[in-house]
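User: Design a sequence. Structure:
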């Protein structure tokens, strides 16, 4: 097969359906900064550039690392460029490096105008992006992927966004960070639930492989429900945060295939719906927290 992916296939390889995992934490963190009366739009845009570049970089890095290991040779999920032989490993690795470099440059600018010590946090994020499936002992192959997503796309992304704008964090930011982190982790749980059958023979021992099908489905539902519970906590800040329940229909739609025991390609929409739940919840809560009290 010719190793020349089309532009559309490169876009699909970047996995645009994962973009809510990058956008939602920045929106939530900016909402938390607005709650403190300190939102700064251009810093929010820099943070968004960092988050989007990093998630595209990690997607291409995963495509490269899983592809050269043969993990994607038998796959039911979205297109993988290396595994499908549509692009050479070198080309996909180059795309990953370019995206991660863009994120690093935007992060450097954001740290220099906010707090230089954040450079260490940025370096840890880039290392985490690469070592998820890269290196000799990738932590994504040992069942720690969900924890990393919770930390980097939840706690670090939300609280980092709030801190760069307000130069402090508060309990509202922490609640939002936990909620976004739980939903972001749920996306990966759904992804790994779908891939249990192919990951285990390939030696990719994800958390889903360790827990098994039934317990992974329970974990997914608990993570999605977390945002609903945290909405009640945010209502202590302002009753307007009750609007976060607008995301409930999307959450229920995401849960339905998992709860009913569906697998394979039937779980692909779950990733989309969970990401949309996270994005809608983050946007609505950010707007609610921005309303003058």
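Assistant: Done.
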């Amino acid at each position: 097969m010719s190793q020349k992916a089309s532009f559309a296939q490169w876009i699909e390889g970047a996995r645009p359906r994962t973009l809510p995992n990058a956008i939602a934490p920045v929106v939530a963190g900016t909402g938390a900064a607005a709650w403190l009366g300190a939102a700064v739009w251009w810093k929010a845009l820099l943070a968004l550039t960092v988050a989007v570049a990093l998630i595209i970089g990690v997607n291409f890095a995963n495509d490269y690392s899983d592809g050269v290991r043969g993990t994607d040779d038998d796959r039911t999920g979205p297109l993988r460029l290396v595994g499908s032989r549509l692009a050479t490993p070198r080309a996909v690795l180059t795309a990953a490096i370019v995206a991660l470099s863009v994120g690093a440059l935007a992060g450097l600018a954001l740290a220099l105008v906010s707090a230089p010590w954040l450079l260490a946090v940025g370096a840890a994020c880039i290392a985490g992006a690469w070592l998820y499936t890269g290196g000799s002992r990738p932590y994504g192959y040992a069942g720690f992927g969900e924890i990393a997503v919770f930390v980097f796309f939840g706690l670090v992304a939300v609280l980092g966004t709030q801190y760069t704008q307000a130069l402090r964090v508060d309990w509202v930011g922490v609640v939002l960070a936990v909620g976004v982190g739980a939903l972001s982790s749920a996306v990966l749980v759904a992804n790994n639930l779908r891939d249990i059958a192919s990951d285990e023979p390939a030696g990719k021992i994800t958390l889903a492989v360790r827990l098994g099908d039934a317990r992974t489905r329970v974990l997914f539902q608990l993570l999605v429900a977390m945002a609903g519970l945290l909405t009640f906590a945010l209502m202590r800040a302002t009753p307007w945060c009750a609007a976060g329940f607008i995301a409930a229909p999307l959450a229920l739609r995401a849960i339905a295939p998992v709860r009913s025991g569906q697998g394979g390609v039937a779980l692909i929409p779950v990733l989309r719906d969970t990401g949309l739940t996270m994005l809608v919840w983050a946007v609505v809560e950010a707007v609610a927290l921005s309303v003058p009290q």
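Residues 13-288 form a domain with the Farnesyl Diphosphate Synthase fold (CATH 1.10.600). Residues 41-69 form the longest helix (29 residues).
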